Amino acid sequence: MTALDLDFVRAQFPAFASPVLSSHAFFENAGGSYPCRQVVERLTRFYTDRKVQPYGPYPGAQAGGAEMDEARARLAAMMGVRAAQVSFGPSTSANTYVLAQGVRGWLRGQKAAVVVTNQDHEANSGVWRRLADEGVEIREWRIDPSTGSLNPDDLRTLLADGRVRLVCFPHCSNIIAEINDVAEISGIAREAGARTVVDGVSYAPHGFPDFNALGCDVYLFSAYKTYGPHQGIMILDESFGMELPGQGHFFNQDALYKRHTPAGPDHAQVAACAGMADYIDALAAHHGLGGDPLARNQGVHELMRAQETAVIRPLLDYLAARNDLRLIGPRTAERRAPTVAVELPGAAEPVSEELGRRGIACWAGDFYAVRPLDALGVPRDKGVLRLSAVHYTSAEEVVRLIAALDAVL
Q1: How far apart are CA 83 and CA 269, in angstroms?
Q2: Angle at 146 (CA atoms; ends 140, 152), nearest 5 degrees
Q3: Which of 55, 167, 341, 371 could pair covalently with 384 via S-S, beta carbons 3.0-4.6 A apart?
Q4: In this protein, which residues make up the domain named Aminotransferase class V (predicted)?
Q5: Ramachandran bin of 224, using left for φ above 0, alpha for ψ from -120 to 50, beta for the remaining angles
Q6: CATH class of 6-34+295-407
Q7: What is the CATH code for 44-276?
Q8: Per-residue pLDDT for 1 more than 80?
C-alpha cells in the first residue's frame, strides 16, 4: 500500500504555518482537529459572497444554497448513503438529544428497554438514561474495569428476553480508545430485534465511516473533529428515521434530513463541510486512489490508519514500559485509535500545564467521560492525561512528546 505523503498532508492545514499554533506539537486532536485549507477557504467564501438567506432568486442566495446541497451530497456519497440520510446540527450532543426525544415518543407506552454502556462519552449515555423518566428500563452494558473493554457476550445476555429496542454504544471511547466491532455488535442487536445508535465522534477523525458496512441504524460524529467546522453530523437509516416521531417543523416531516432538525442549520458551516470532501478527494488524487467517492474514502481511510498506527506505536511502547503510570486501553496500536489516556500518581492537570510550557499541546481531565473513569477506578479529581494524534501527526512530534514526558514525569 502507498504510504501517506505527510508533507502533502500537512501542507493542506494552515495551522502548521501559523506563528501561534506551529510552536507546539499538537496532541489535543481528540478535543478538535485542525481545519483543512479547503474548509477554511469555503467558509471564508461563504461569509464573503454568500452570507444571505440561501436558495433565494438571486445569485448569492442561489450559490449559497447550492454549496449547502453540495456538502450534503458529497459527504453522503463518501459514506455510501443517500443525501437525505445526512442531517446537520450544532453539535453531536445536540443531535443525540434531539434523536432521544424522537425515541422517547417511539417507546412511549411500551414495556421496552434500552441498552447503554459505561464506556461512552456522556453525550451518548446521559440522554438515553433519562428515558427512564418515561418508564423505559435502562440496562448498562459494562466494561471490564481492568481493561475498559466491552464483551459482546455480555450484550447477548442483556438482549436475551427480547425487550430491548435500542442499543447505544461508541465506535471507540474518547478515553479507552479501543475500536469496537460495530458491524458485529449491530448484528447481535439486529438479531434480537433492536436498533443501534453509534457515537462515532472519537473514531471518525481516523476515517469517515462506510455506513452500510457498519450495519448500524444511526451514526453520529462531529465535523470539528474531522477537519471541518463546528457542526454535528448524523447519518440515519431511512426506515428508522421515518419511523421515529419527527422533531422538526410539521411541514418538513417528509424530508428525512429536516425531520430531526428542529432549528435551521448554520448555513455557512454546512456549506464549508464540503471542504472535508475536497480534502479526502485531494488525498485520494495525490496518492493515486480512484473509483467512486466511497472507494476513494475507503482508500484514504486505510492510508490514515496505517500512518496513525505507525506513529503512535512508539508512544504506547514508551508508556507501557513505565511503572509509574497506568496506560488505559489496548497496548497495541492496531486495536485502538491514536487517543492515549494515562492515569498518573497525582492530578493530571499540572502535568499537561508543564507539557504546554515545553512545547506540547495537550490537556487533562475527565473529557465528559466520567462514567468510564469511574468504572476504571480513576478518581475524578485526578482525571487523566490525554495525548491524541491523527494522521497528520509526525514521528518527529511523537519523539518531542516522549522527550517532554520523560523530563516532566
Answers
A1: 17
A2: 45
A3: 341
A4: 26-235, 302-401
A5: alpha
A6: alpha beta
A7: 3.40.640.10
A8: no
